[in-house]
Amino acid sequence: QKEVEQDPGPLSVPEGAIVSLNCTYSNSAFQYFMWYRQYSRKGPELLMYTYSSGNKEDGRFTAQVDKSSKYISLFIRDSQPSDSATYLCAMRGVTSGTYKYIFGTGTRLKVLA
Amino acid sequence: NAGVTQTPKFQVLKTGQSMTLQCAQDMNHEYMSWYRQDPGMGLRLIHYSVGAGITDQGEVPNGYNVSRSTTEDFPLRLLSAAPSQTSVYFCASRKGTSGTDTQYFGPGTRLTVL
After folding, report:
1. 3-class DSSP state for residue A1?
2. Is the CB of residue B49 less than 8 Å from the CB of residue B32?
3. Closest in A31, A42, A99 to B48, CB measured
């Protein structure tokens, strides 16, 4: 079983829709939770990070962490065609190797104009 | 700032050939890493470095060597290329060990081994 599970998609939504992207994980030591956006043939770029449980909002993006369920989510409001990309979740544990991250496989999102 | 740069962008090798993937950053970051990205596998850590002269293995180090002689550069060497090393390779850097430190990725090198 992978430490981090993420539905690969693809997920197609109409412009303006609310998008929900999710990851589940098995390692209770994870404390830092991140979402990266990766455009085609580009490197990943950090969208948001959250420490421990709770919500964090940044413009149209909201990240949620539910440590009791080992479940994290990224919501995109008023989705735009420019949001079309692959979204990777990533996690890091305070008790694990300091310099290592565990990444999900990514969910491919397509927002249709 | 150029951020994290990688060369070449694309490379085709024959089995058994060796080559070096270059990575450089101009942000004075201590921590640098190499990842490979394969379909259905996500990003997997190959090697990482916590500063000049210090490197360590990641999740999938076999067949790769690294060195870190300067803060800026972190080259990845393929010793004897194999088809299983066909992948997209990303270099990344970050300032420190805090979980809130942003990890910056380069644009990637697409490698095909025939």
Report:
1. coil
2. yes
3. A99
Q: Which of A88-102, B23-37, B93-107 has the lowest mean pLDDT?
A: A88-102
Give the contacts of B46 (CB within 8 A, at least 6 positions apart).
B33, B34, B35, B36, B58, B59, B60, B61, B64, B66, B76, B89
pLDDT at A92 over 80: yes
Q: How far apart are CA A60 and CA A76, in angstroms?
A: 6
Residue from A99, A102, A103, A107 whose CB has the most chain B CBs within 10 Å, to mutate: A99
Do residue A43 and residue B105 have CB atoms under 8 angstroms apart? yes
Tell me the CB-side half-sphere exposure of residue B62, using CA atoms within 13 A.
Answer: 2
Query: pLDDT tier at B92 (50, 70, 90 boundaries)?
Result: very high
Q: Do B40 and A42 touch (CB under 8 A)?
A: no
Whether the pLDDT of residue A96 is over 70: the answer is no
Q: Cβ separation of B42 and A104 shorter than 8 Å?
A: yes
